[in-house]
Write a structure and sequence with these properties.
The complex is a heterodimer of chains A (862) and B (249).
Chain A (H helix, E strand, L loop, with lengths): L2 H7 L11 H10 L4 H15 L3 H36 L6 E5 L5 H9 L3 E14 L4 E9 L10 E3 L6 E3 L8 E4 L2 H6 L6 E4 L2 E11 L13 E5 L3 H4 L9 E7 L4 H12 L5 E4 L5 H49 L4 H38 L13 H17 L1 H8 L18 H20 L2 H29 L5 H12 L1 H34 L8 E6 L4 H10 L8 E11 L2 E2 L8 H8 L2 E5 L7 E6 L10 E5 H7 L6 E6 L2 E13 L10 E3 L1 H4 L5 E6 L6 H10 L4 E4 L1 H39 L1 H13 L4 H38 L8 H28 L2 H8 L1
Parallel strand pairs in A: 3-9, 6-8, 15-20, 17-19
Antiparallel strand pairs in A: 1-10, 1-11, 2-3, 2-7, 2-10, 4-5, 4-8, 6-9, 7-8, 12-21, 12-22, 13-14, 13-15, 13-18, 13-21, 16-19, 17-20, 18-19
Chain B lengths: L2 H25 L3 E14 L2 E14 L3 E5 L6 H8 L7 E6 L2 E2 L5 H8 L3 E4 L11 H11 L5 H11 L15 H13 L5 E5 L7 H18 L2 E5 L3 H5 L3 E6 L2 E2 L1
Parallel strand pairs in B: 3-8, 3-9, 6-7, 7-8
Antiparallel strand pairs in B: 1-2, 1-4, 4-5, 9-10
Helix pairs in contact in B: 4-5, 4-6, 5-6, 6-7
Classes of the chains: A alpha+beta (862), B alpha/beta (249).
Chain lengths: 862, 249
């Protein structure tokens, strides 16, 4: 006799009276399963469950989510850092401190303390002379060692000749000059010029200056000299007008720390800029890129969530039996739930590890693919995306799986005797709420945009509800159809109304996502890239004097050069809004402070421009005699200007005030001449103004520039083509990255289709077994299933295509503020894809159903 | 092994048999189950439906009782209430000294843990676990440290020692039910509940299961509540009770 038997026999049953609740509970807790046992049981179950298709779907879906999130995380991390670095070339640094006086040692010491790389630049206006005594007003830039910290200065040996990267800053005694003064001063490389007390030699023509983009309109032709020559030149004395700039970069988070420090310092003399504050076009491109990458990953995660939810439903059916049996043998519900939690945690961990590895490999491969597009090596990613991947797996399981499975684990224990009891379903509100919360967190986190996240969720809920209702309507329709050929196709819908409705909804969601991707891939990216038109202007001409306007128009027409209109440009400073002094009550943000503390460019026009959309209010009558202003909407938002406000500007020695008549949307990416504030002619005409235009010159530019400089000496010609190329390059790279990330979304869509087919497989097994027992041939069953899947595919395809078009419209028009064009080819292809894909997937997934012997199926269902 | 040691082991073995016998004698007529005025009602669309009405039932330690009756008479519902798998709508129910009617589901599970065995008509083996893992399950839930050894030993007793690592799908119906019997007895239950244990088996397999179940029960002296349609099987029990229309006769 074993010890256990002896022990068992030595414990007599209590003869009289009943144990109290407390006694039983105490006994229960004493015999409670240990965490170690629970872990063992969970691990054992999980080990075997991996053979089951629903677990395979679950783990693949989780791995896919993690891989999508981490690959996007790692890659976006690297791309954003690279992009920021490239965008930083427009600043020539990651951040810049500028001041009208020499930058104090405190700032430099802080930069040193944070191990920032620094370089100093001093800019000031001056006059340069050639040997013949001709003069030109120039903007001198004295550059210190290391300049530029980001990007490069490009020089050409010949005027408008082939350019090359400059190896360093100008050597002592040498200058690099803007090609625009070549015409005025008749100089070439090697020519001698006089700058203050200094005699210098021209060592090259500046083809590209990275940090020149900010404030192009104020710039006289550039002359770049060495900082070493500055004392000897005698150019800068006490009270000289100059701008001192300290350029800074860091590989770590030093810039962030410096930002915090300098913002806390709040010195009005110091202006601080980072890449984020850069030009609107670059900022817009970066934000859009980040949003698109996040969106692509978010769709993959959402689809994986749908696959997880479908698989969870089947897992719950199994768990219900397991949970009931364990509880029949004495396990308490907490223990059963803990086992479920341990299993899910193990799954999440496994998915996180595998998904992160795949994500890392995927981003490495992509980075390899894109190396040629980046002029520099992509920086290594940080580990932060790993946290995202692990959280994603946990969140997907918690949101889409846990409520269903944990409810199943606590299903009535009597199920061990009554298998016919209906499946315990958790509260639909809990399931929906947990999924919605998970989705919102994931989407907001991935897109960095709660509005986009919320819109997507509303879209998903609306779509799923609509699909569900349509599917249910169809099932009701099926019971009334009399046609024999249709009857066979519809009878499956009638037999399994609930699960078929779910299946149609799931298929539609999968197809919807795939189609949405197709639309986004083609339409959205095209639309986005269209923002910078192929014929975008590549030159600005500024400082056109009013009396030169007719001659300039003739000049351009004679050369068949397409140009924008010539816009008047007036320098002014915003003084007050509704009689309230700007800045009196503080500034809403740093940008507003900068925009209102200095002069900026205003213009005036009688008629509204076709490329500026009025988003609030209306344009003024062309012949109005009143003073009105039109304000760009983002500028209005940032400065707090509203429709109907009265603005007061200080222009030269005059004060001009007028009412805000309308707000305009401006596409900065178009690179057309645009203004934050435009006035009515009555408000601004007659004030000191010069004119500006943008134009496109194709082919060789040198003749055009020479002629323009010769005929209009006062006009400044600025080539912006290179800057546009850089911005377009950033957009192209981002578009390529988005398309790559869509591979995950595509896989997740396929996974949803597979999960949806598997969702009804158990029912089909049972049904096929009964039908075959009753004499149905395999051929009959196969034909019946084929028709059913074709019908389901058709419905899902139609619904998916239509809703995809609607969602794409909403996303593009409402969220991205871009124009959407309906693409009928994608709509039709989507419907066909639905039919073919679901038919093939259904037939493949149903093959085991047809092969299985009826006896085995019926036995397993007992 | 020395003579002294061998003698000590034999003496110890004989003493333990005597003690077991005395204890079984002592507990044979103590109540393992005592149900008073048990009733179970469910609400349907057509109103309140009484599945079980005013059932009084007592099961003594070591006693074997069969519950017979036509389908739908409430046999399985009664078994579920007696085992604490479900709660009664009214009445009092004591199992192994615990007042089940005062306990929640977890409390009832705690009473069953390690003291109650089950054999079901549909075997109820977990498909993902091997035979030995299925048998280990109740031991592990009760916190036994040597679960695997005891489960393997139990499988030897039911003649499945060689097939302990097979999954249920790799076993015949009779073999699956033998695994279920091994699982029921592995915790040394004080009471065993069997719901149509031969209902899914052919006659030969059914007979084998019955023999196995009765012999193992006799060896351990545990009480048995058996729900069956099989008259031959019922006749082997100490008492036969008939359920009809939710009433125990």
């Amino acid at each position: 006799m074993s010890t256990a038997e002896s022990e068992g026999a030595a414990q007599p049953v209590k003869a009289a009276g009943s144990a109290s609740v407390a006694e039983v509970k105490a006994a229960g807790s004493a015999s409670a399963t240990s965490l170690r046992t629970e872990f063992t049981l969970a691990l054992r179950q999980l080990r075997r469950e991996f053979r089951l298709s629903e677990y395979l779907v679950l783990i693949f879906a989780l791995i896919l989510s993690v891989a999508a999130v981490t690959s996007v995380g790692f890659f976006a991390n690297r791309v954003e850092r690279a992009m920021a670095s490239q965008a930083a070339t427009l600043l020539a640094a990651d951040a810049v401190v500028s001041s009208p006086s020499a930058i104090g040692t405190e700032v430099r010491d802080k930069a040193d303390e944070l191990s920032l790389s620094t370089s100093e630049v001093i800019e000031f206006p001056s006059v340069i002379l050639n040997e013949a005594g001709d003069t030109s007003l120039v903007a001198v830039k004295a550059t210190g060692e290391g300049y530029p910290l980001r990007g490069e200065v490009r020089l050409s040996e010949k005027l408008y000749g082939t350019d090359r990267a400059a190896a360093a800053v100008p050597a002592a005694g040498e200058v690099w000059v803007d090609p625009r003064i070549a015409g005025t001063l008749q100089i070439d490389v090697g020519s001698v010029l006089y700058l203050g007390d200094l005699e210098v030699t021209v060592a090259g023509f500046i083809a590209f200056e990275p940090d020149r983009s900010g404030g192009v309109f104020q710039m006289a032709p550039r002359v770049m000299m060495s900082m070493q020559d500055l004392p000897e030149s005698g150019l800068l004395g006490d009270g000289s007008r100059a701008r001192y700039r300290l350029l800074m970069t860091s590989e770590g988070d030093g810039i962030d720390q410096f930002s915090d420090w300098i913002e806390a310092k709040d010195d009005a003399n110091l202006r601080y800029s980072t890449v984020e504050d850069g030009s609107p076009a670059v900022r817009s491109a970066l934000v859009n890129a980040r949003r698109f990458l996040g969106l692509a990953a978010a769709v993959a995660v959402l689809l994986s969530g749908a696959a997880v939810a479908l698989a969870a439903r089947q897992i719950a059916e199994r768990d219900m039996d397991t949970g009931a049996l364990m509880r029949a043998f004495g396990a308490n519900s907490r223990s059963v739930i803990r086992i479920v939690l341990i299993r899910l945690a193990l799954l999440a961990l496994m998915a996180a590890v595998l998904g992160s590895i795949i994500g890392f490999i995927a981003q490495t491969a992509l980075a390899g693919l894109l190396t040629q597009f980046f002029q520099t090596e992509l920086p290594q990613p940080t580990l932060a995306p790993l946290i995202g991947g692990i959280s994603c797996a946990a969140l997907a399981l918690a949101g889409f799986c846990l409520p269903v499975i944990s409810r199943a684990a606590t299903a009535p224990v009597i199920r061990v005797l009554r298998r016919d009891l209906p499946l315990a379903q958790p509260s639909i509100w809990i399931v929906v709420a947990s999924a919605l919360v998970a989705m919102l967190v994931l989407l907001t986190w991935l897109t960095h945009d709660i509005r986009l996240g919320a819109l997507l969720i509303i879209g998903v809920v609306a779509v799923v509800s609509m699909l569900w209702l349509i599917a249910r309507g169809l099932v009701a329709l099926a019971s009334r159809v009399k046609s024999p050929s249709l009857r066979r196709a519809l009878e499956g819908l009638r037999r399994r109304p609930g699960s078929i409705s779910l299946q149609i909804s799931a298929f539609s969601v999968g197809l919807l996502a795939l189609l949405l991707l197709a639309i986004i891939r083609t339409d959205v990216l095209n639309t986005w890239q269209r923002q910078i038109p192929k014929d975008a202007p590549n030159f600005f001409m500024i400082n056109i004097q009013p009396q030169d306007v007719p001659a300039m128009t003739d000049f351009l027409t004679a050369r068949d050069i397409s140009s924008d209109a010539l816009y008047p440009m007036i320098r002014g400073r915003l003084e007050s809004i509704n009689d309230s002094k700007v800045g009196e009550a503080g500034y809403k943000n740093e940008r507003m402070r900068r925009m209102t503390e200095r002069d900026f460019n205003l213009s005036y026009q009688a008629a509204a421009r076709a490329d500026n959309e009025i988003v609030a209010g209306e344009w003024w009558p062309a012949d109005t005699t009143e003073s009105f202003f039109s304000v760009e909407e983002e500028f209005a938002e940032e400065t707090g200007i509203k429709l109907g406000d009265t603005l007061q500007f200080k222009i030269a020695d005059r004060t001009v005030s007028g009412e805000v008549k309308n707000l305009r949307a401006v596409e900065w990416e178009s690179f057309a001449v645009n203004f934050f504030v435009v006035g009515s002619p009555a408000a601004l005409e007659g004030l000191p103004a010069s004119f500006v235009t943008s134009l496109r010159v194709d082919g060789d530019h040198s003749d055009f520039v020479r002629d323009a400089v010769k005929d209009f000496p006062s006009v400044t010609v600025i080539e912006i083509g290179k800057m546009i190329e850089r911005v377009t390059g950033i957009l192209d790279r981002a578009a390529l990255a988005v398309q790559y990330v869509f591979i995950f979304t595509l896989l997740a869509g396929v996974l949803v289709l597979v999960a949806a087919v598997l969702a009804t497989r158990r029912e089909r097994f049972h049904e096929a077994a009964i039908l075959r027992t009753l004499g149905a041939s395999r051929r009959y069953l196969s034909a019946s299933m084929s028709r059913e899947f074709i019908l389901i595919g058709l419905l899902a395809g139609l619904m998916g295509s239509t809703i995809a078009a609607a969602v794409a419209w909403a996303m593009i028009e409402l969220v991205m503020d871009l124009d959407y064009r309906f693409n009928p080819v994608i709509w039709l292809a989507g419907t066909l894809l639905g039919v073919i894909a679901i038919w093939i997937a259904g037939v493949i997934a149903s093959r085991p159903v047809l092969r299985q012997s009826p006896l085995a199926v019926i036995r397993s269902q007992v | 092994m020395g003579k002294f040691t061998l003698g000590f082991l034999i003496l110890n073995f004989m003493l333990s048999i005597c003690a077991n016998s005395i204890l079984n004698q002592g507990t044979r007529y103590m109540n393992v189950i005592e149900a008073r005025q048990l009733a179970k009602h469910v609400t349907t669309s057509e109103g309140d439906l009484a599945i079980l009405q005013s059932v009084d039932f007592t099961l003594n330690a070591g006693e074997v009782v069969a519950i017979v009756g036509p389908s739908g008479s409430g046999k399985s519902t009664l078994l579920a209430l007696l085992a604490g798998l479900d709660s009664a709508s009214s009445g009092q129910m004591d199992l192994l000294g615990a007042a089940l009617h005062t306990l929640d589901e977890d409390g009832r599970a705690a009473v069953r843990a390690g003291q109650v065995g089950f054999v079901f008509q549909s075997f109820q083996l977990l498909p993902g676990l091997t035979a030995v893992e299925n048998v280990m399950l109740p031991l592990e839930l009760a916190g036994a440290a040597d679960a695997r050894e005891r489960a393997a030993e139990q499988l030897q007793k039911v003649g499945l020692g060689e097939r302990q690592h097979h999954l249920p799908s790799q076993l015949s119906g009779g073999e699956q039910q033998r695994v279920a019997v091994a699982r029921a007895f592995v915790v040394e239950p004080k009471v065993l509940f069997a719901d149509e244990p031969t209902g899914n088996l052919d006659r030969a397999s059914g007979d084998m299961i019955v023999e196995l179940m009765f012999s193992m029960r006799a060896e351990r002296g545990c009480a048995l509540v058996l729900v069956t349609h099989d008259q031959r099987l019922a006749e082997r029990c100490d008492r036969v009770l008939t359920m009809d229309g939710g009433v125990l006769q």
